[in-house]
Amino acid sequence: MEKKGITLVVQGRFEKIFPDQLARDVEAAFGRQVLVVPFTHDILPYFDAARKQYDANRLLKLIHTEYSAGSFKTIGLFQVDLFIPILTYIFGQAQYNGSTGIASVYRLRNEQYGMPGDEKLLYERFRKVVIHELGHTFGLIHCHVPVCVMRPGTYVEDIDQKNHWFCNKCSSELETAFNNHS
Ligand SMILES: [Zn+2]
Ligand SMILES: [Zn+2]
Predict the structure, then answer these.
(1) Contact 87/79 with Cβ under 8 angstroms?
(2) Is 177 helix (H, G, I), strand (E, B) or coil?
(3) What global pTM score does this model have?
(4) What does each C-alpha distance from 146 to 71, 94, 131, 150, 152 come to in angstroms?
(5) Is 87 a residue whose pLDDT tops 70?
(6) How far apart are CA 160 and CA 91, in angstroms?
(7) Fewer Cβ within 10 Å of end Cβ, the chain: N or C?
(8) Residue pLDDT, tens place only, 123-151
């Protein structure tokens, strides 16, 4: 069987519309069929008691080994606070030119920064993070075009400043990646 689609693995309870909306938007961004499946593992073993956060490296590995076999690219969508050892937190991470990524909505919520919740803004941020991480799986590196979705960012403000789509250079690299393994 050919593996051409993208799978979204959904952990926990998201805002109602998020997974389906994201499926449509990811499909539009990458021109691939998108499947939404639930995360069925226990998340607790991935909790780091000392940091009170979840281990992103181990969760990425889990998504890769348990959920990615049937599709071209797979991304785990989490509710929980993710970390890697060298950083305070991460919005997401992905295997460069690989098949798997993860992203979390946790640090994208306004409430996290003492501001009133904004579901629409939250969705916009999350969509950008997910498309960014999937971009890495297609071999895209960070881009310095200020509004490109592949621009790196540490804060939610950085995410708010960019678009949810690729600049011309990144689009054409993505095109090449598609042609190389379509
Ligand atoms: Zn990145
Ligand atoms: Zn770019």
Answers:
(1) no
(2) helix
(3) 0.96
(4) 31, 21, 16, 9, 9
(5) yes
(6) 13
(7) N
(8) 999 999 999 999 999 999 999 999 999 99
74 contacts 6 by C-beta, under 8 angstroms: yes
CA of residue 135 to ligand 2 center, whole Å: 10
Closest CA to 19 of 30, 31, 34: 34
How crowded is residue 1: how many other Cβ atoms within 10 Å of its Cβ?
4
Burial class (CB in 10 A: 0-12, 13-18, 19+), 124: middle
Token pair for 68: 């990615």
CA distance 177 to 182: 8
Q: Which two tokens stand for residue 157?
A: 């403000």
Residues near ion ligand 2 (Cβ under 5 Å): 143, 145, 148, 150, 167, 170
Q: Does residue 180 register a pLDDT over 80?
A: no
